[in-house]
Q: What sequence folds into this?
């Protein structure tokens, strides 16, 4: 019976595809097949300079009290040579290598060996085995969603150690910050290189691989769509969602512990940064199943951009505010602190509600209520590489009727709040909002380009109905 129905469905899809008259190639979906000179130049720039940028920021804090200009001035005026700065930089140590190896191994064990139990007792939480989106080759991957429990176990152990076990100091991360940076780089490069070799020689799904013929582009943007080892070790979900993001809140806690050690108190700005970023991280894990449907997992291939970015860029640059506050403890007046808290919470609210509206809409196929009404939408269709035609819907109600990426706007408001918590003395903590604005604007344009190729004229109808990207009436 089931086999008969499947055959009928396949025939219907074939028929629909014939009716459609066009066979859309994989090139119109997912990342580029061909590399234009601008993309290549950007990629070469990032491959060469992104590791230096991270080093520069962290070194500026360690050697120049978080001033971004003083190291440059020192170098330009001949006051210091590069070798002087480098000689004062801590090298890789056995201790850091041990801590880092233990950390990553522990996260692998939590990811691979403990099936999710949180969904059994937390109402509303979606965990356990979940399905991802359809890949360009028409594959639907299964994922073990157990990030929340990995985060909880890790943090319970952290607090148990800080409160009564005392195996190590809670300042351990701050105290080894630069040696750990070398470890993170080694892992970032190793995993990206392995992913590239794997893509060529033993891909998990050959039909979901993309080769541009340009080594640097393939290395950066990735070849394989969903590289895996065995049935369950998914590179994208693990590296995106575990060592870096679980560490984010621990890194902030370690910075707070360092403030306490150095100054005998934790400032309200440090608490704000810990709380607001903690909400963001916890939100990520609470909604990990939703995350399977975001661009990172649904559309990006796994290369250096994700591999190195998750290991190095995220834990080192997303935590700059906490690091800055160790060097510059800022005690905010009540009005400033309240303003930051309100902005952060409002940003988070918009971010969460917008994402939730789309998720609800997609999960129920539009059979839901958004702001008390049945959501309006635009019917659209696309074709996967095997020629199967699929149907989808683009919602035009709720925040999705205000702008095409209002979730990014909420994210940006939250990001600005973390920066404002650091006062106005230095530019360094504001790097995050500058970076997020560039990232999310670029991501918005990249996503729209992809959606336009995927949905064609249907996408045009959608952009006519919702004309703005991030800010209604402005952009
Ligand atoms: P979205 O969640 O906005 O997903 C975009 C996709 O949603 C599109 O490709 C399209 O996919 C679908 N879609 C677009 N418009 C509609 C609509 N009107 N109705 C229904 N579906 C629609 O983007 P991201 O995955 O980039 O972001 C998810 C969240 O993660 C955001 O809130 C973002 O701020 C955050 N983020 C945070 C980052 C950080 O570093 N802190 C980095 C990146 C993201 P389809 O092909 O299925 O139609």
A:
């Amino acid at each position: 019976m089931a086999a008969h129905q499947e055959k009928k469905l396949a025939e219907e899809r074939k028929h629909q595809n014939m009716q459609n008259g066009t066979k859309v190639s994989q090139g119109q979906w997912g990342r580029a097949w061909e590399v234009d000179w601008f993309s290549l130049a950007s990629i070469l720039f990032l491959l060469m300079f992104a590791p230096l940028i991270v080093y520069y920021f962290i070194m500026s804090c360690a050697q120049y009290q978080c001033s971004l200009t003083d190291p440059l001035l020192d170098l330009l005026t001949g006051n210091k040579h590069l070798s002087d700065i480098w000689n004062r930089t801590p090298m890789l140590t056995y201790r850091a290598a041990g801590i880092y190896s233990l950390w990553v191994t522990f996260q692998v064990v939590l990811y691979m060996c403990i099936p999710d139990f949180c969904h059994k007792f937390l109402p509303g939480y979606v965990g356990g085995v979940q399905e991802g989106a359809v890949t360009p080759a028409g594959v639907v991957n299964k994922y073990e969603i157990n990030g929340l429990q990995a985060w909880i176990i890790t943090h319970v152990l952290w607090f148990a150690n800080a409160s009564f076990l005392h195996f190590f100091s809670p300042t351990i991360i701050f105290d080894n910050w630069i040696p750990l940076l070398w470890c993170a780089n080694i892992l970032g490069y190793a995993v990206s290189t392995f992913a590239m070799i794997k893509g060529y020689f033993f891909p998990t799904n050959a039909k979901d691989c993309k080769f541009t013929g340009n080594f640097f582009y393939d290395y950066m943007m990735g070849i394989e769509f969903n590289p895996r080892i065995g049935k369950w070790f998914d590179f994208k979900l693990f590296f995106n969602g575990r060592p870096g993001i679980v560490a984010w809140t621990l890194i902030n806690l370690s910075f707070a512990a360092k403030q306490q050690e150095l100054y005998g108190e934790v400032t309200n700005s440090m608490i704000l940064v810990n709380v607001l970023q903690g909400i963001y991280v916890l939100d990520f894990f609470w909604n990990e199943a939703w995350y399977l449907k975001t661009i990172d997992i649904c559309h990006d291939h796994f290369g250096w951009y994700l591999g190195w970015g998750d290991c190095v860029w995220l834990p080192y640059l997303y935590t700059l505010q906490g690091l800055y506050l160790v060097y510059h403890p800022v005690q905010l007046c009540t009005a400033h602190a309240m303003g930051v808290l309100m902005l952060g919470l409002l940003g988070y609210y918009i971010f969460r509600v917008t994402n939730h509206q789309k998720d609800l809409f997609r999960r129920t196929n539009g059979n839901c209520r958004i702001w008390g009404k049945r959501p309006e939408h635009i019917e659209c269709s696309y074709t996967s590489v095997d020629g199967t035609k699929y149907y989808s819907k683009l919602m035009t109600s709720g925040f999705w009727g205000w702008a095409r990426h209002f979730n990014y706007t909420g994210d940006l408001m939250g990001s600005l709040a973390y920066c404002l918590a650091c006062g106005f003395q230095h530019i360094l903590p504001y790097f995050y909002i500058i970076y997020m604005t560039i990232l999310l604007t670029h991501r918005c344009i990249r996503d729209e380009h992809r959606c336009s190729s995927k949905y064609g004229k249907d996408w045009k109808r959608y952009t006519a109905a919702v004309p703005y990207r991030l800010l209604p009436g402005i952009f």
Remarks:
- Residues 1-29 have pLDDT under 50 and may be disordered.
- Residues 294-295, 351, 355, 358, 361-362, 392, 394-395, 400, 405, 407-408, 411, 443, 447, 451, 454 surround NDP (CB under 6 Å).
- The chain has 22 helices and six strands.
